[in-house]
Amino acid sequence: MAGFLALDELFEGRHFDREVIVLCVRWYLRFKLSYRDLVEMMAERGLSLAHTTIMRWVHDYAPEFERRWNRFARPAGPSWRVDETYVKIRGKWMYLYRAVDGEGRTVDFRLSGKRDVGAAKAFLRNAMKTQGSAPRTITLDGYAASHRAVREMKTDGQLPANTKVRSSKYLNNLIEQDHRGVKLRIGPMLGFKWFRTAAITIAGIELLRRSRLPSFSVRAALVPIRADSLCDRGVSWMMRHADGSGGTARLRTAEGHPRVH
Question: Taking the model in full, what pTM does it have?
Answer without folding.
Answer: 0.78
